[in-house]
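Supplementary notes for students who missed Thursday's class. We covered one full example, reproduced here. Read the sequence, then the structure, then the short commentary at the end.
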Amino acid sequence: MNYKNMQLFGNGLRRTYGTEARRYNLLAARLIADLVKGFLGPRGLEKMFIDILGEMTVTKDGATFLRKIDVEHPAAKVIIEASNAVDNAVGDGTTSVVVLAGALVEKAEELLEMGISPSRISDGYHNALHMALEIVKKVSIEASNHDKKIMRYLVETCLRSKAVSHFTEEILIPSLVVDGVCDIADFSRCHLDVDDIKIEEKIGNSSDTELVHGTVIDKTIDDSSMPRMIENAKILLLDSDIQDERTKTDAEIRISDPSQMTSFIKKKSSNLLQKIQCVIESGANVVFSRGGIDSLALNHFAKNKMLTVRRIKENDLLWLAKATGAKVVRDLESINDNDLGYAAKVYEKTVGDDKMVFVNGCRNPKSITFLLRANSKKILDEFHRTILDSIYVLRNFITEPKIVPGGGAIEAFIATLIKERSYRLPGKEQIVVQKFSEALEEIPLTIARNAGLNTIDIRAQLRQRFYSQSQSKDKKKSRKDIFNNDREWYGINALERKIDNMMELHVIEPLMVKEQILITAIEVIILLMRVDDVLMKKPVEMHGHSHTHMDGTTHSHKGGSKPHDHFDKLGKQQRPMHHYY
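Structure (token representation):
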């Protein structure tokens, strides 16, 4: 039987298999890693992306950039999903995980050329991961999860490698972030809900960035005759209208007598006056309403020296409830004192070109607001991402209060120990584990490369310092001051372009981030290594336009190229807005 002309697959299906498929997969992963290597470290540079709508994004955040670019190869998509997974889990380390994955891919290619099988490489990487996790847990330093000094160092380390680091130090952003997080964190339960933090942005001078111990509403006070500021505010939150109710369906009223018309108008007016009276008698002097407020009601409230803000967003109502301790009221006739919230001051303030309402000085607020200022929308977007990353870093520390040195020091240390342990392993696994240790060194070497240092000299110096330390007998750690223990943690001081002790510089990171980076990178590489057959079907043309959401999900539908909203009504997700392709 002649098989030469036999067609197994239908039209539009492309297949690569065996060594070729694996080579293409690893190449795609390495190319993605090469794209983001330039971000890593304080001396890393930013990238600019312009989408099909002409909207420009300037960022130094790995996950944000990778979500923007449109890739076709499935292996490249797997790497981008890994970056998104780390971003969603720990909020930081998105560039590091891609750089590490790229280094592991490069070493895997070298191992394949030596004739080592993919399954043996996968097993070796997996065993090396267990060694790395064991080492990083053993050397991590425990601390108190409410230690403000350590929290400040964590935020400073996070901000130092971001695009907006040049002005965050001037306006004491680390202090603002730590103070804000300490206001709302539950240290006894090791819990911080990032959604309890509201981030507002306004174009202006970056030195005007502030922390509000309450909520900022991007609205104005409803009536010019109302007071502009109320102290010792008793706050009522309404999820209903104070105006004439309209039927949801078409309704018809038939009147046969003029007197019926008069009674109908009187009844409507009395219903509205009853609602107004309920609000006034509640004792509240500030009213925030999700619905509308009639002009008659505004007039009555102004006469009673009350302040009202209508048609606020639902998520603003929830933030107000958390900040002031008020309960959201739907039935006006059943308002009691327990439903009212408190704030020391509610006032209107001009911010940039707009007026905003500030609810400040709340007792034990469960929600706070960061009002970010910068001189352009592009910088504001990056500033927003930076602040959010630093909040996630603190959340990780509060959840698991263990820290490790940054600046590539922990990776260089793990690489040294794993290389020593590899000599005890039999056969080809020894070579695989050694290659894993070399891949780990890519993190400090990339930081050094971006700072303009010679990576060959840096590699030699790091190995020499950690090797000489490992040969000497480990001394018992002193727990009096966690930054002055006997082990010296050498990493890359990119700002001064030299190798330095990271603990003395207070460059630290949460243990949770490092663990997530190691686990995710290895899982992705093992997945790619075990694929030996790729079948790609030609995509069906859609009438709509393809676009990607912040979680990395890509889909198409009509009008997808136009600005639109898929988020839940509460707007809890605060990651950068929709990304269009």
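Commentary. The longest strand covers residues 341-351. Residues 245 and 268 are 9 Å apart (CA to CA). If anything here is unclear, bring it to office hours.
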